[in-house]
């Protein structure tokens, strides 16, 4: 049964979907798979951010989910990627404290700050049947910009 949640009214297309039992080394392999899909979709500009966010979600499954089982889904559309990680842990991620910053000495607890910093959107949804949750993020490519000299050349000349 697929518990991944697709956003309403979007045109994301599923490109990769698989179930895993994760280990400490799984993130490296999943980053490679994600990068291949991003390259095929001409979305390499979001690869670093998406890989970093994916690493954080995989690490959370390894640390917090009994049995380390999850389902992973990579969804693509022109200019964007959405990654979903569904697991059996019902506890939703807790937001980091308001006063936490990079200078704090804690070695854990910054995952959601990182996710928020490197992605355009993220969220967590409980499964409707209560069997766990899906944590997801989206990274959007920046629209191409037209060099200034081209935009001036494309503008109509002023009338005398």
UniProtKB/TrEMBL annotation:
Keywords from the UniProt entry: Kinase, Serine/threonine-protein kinase, Transferase
Superkingdom as given in the UniProt entry: Bacteria
Keyword Transferase in record: yes
InterPro entries, per database record: Anti-sigma-factor_SerPK, HATPase_C_sf, HATPase_dom
GO MF term (any one): protein serine/threonine kinase activity
Organism: Streptomyces poonensis
Domain Histidine kinase/HSP90-like ATPase: 26-137
Protein name (record): Histidine kinase/HSP90-like ATPase domain-containing protein
């Amino acid at each position: 049964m697929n518990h991944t949640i697709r956003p309403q009214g979007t045109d994301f297309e599923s490109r990769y979907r698989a179930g895993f039992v994760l280990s400490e080394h799984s993130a490296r392999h999943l980053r490679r798979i994600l990068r291949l899909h991003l390259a095929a979709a001409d979305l390499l500009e979001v690869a670093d951010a998406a890989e970093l966010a994916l690493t954080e979600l995989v690490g959370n499954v390894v640390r917090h989910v009994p049995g380390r089982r999850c389902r992973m889904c990579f969804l693509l559309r022109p200019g964007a990627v959405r990654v979903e990680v569904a697991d059996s842990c019902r506890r939703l991620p807790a937001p980091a404290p308001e006063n936490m910053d990079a200078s704090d000495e804690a070695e854990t607890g910054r995952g959601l700050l990182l996710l928020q910093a490197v992605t355009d959107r993220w969220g967590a949804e409980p499964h409707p049947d209560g069997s766990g949750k899906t944590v997801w993020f989206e990274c959007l490519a920046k629209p191409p910009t037209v060099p200034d000299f081209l935009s001036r050349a494309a503008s109509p000349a002023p009338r005398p």
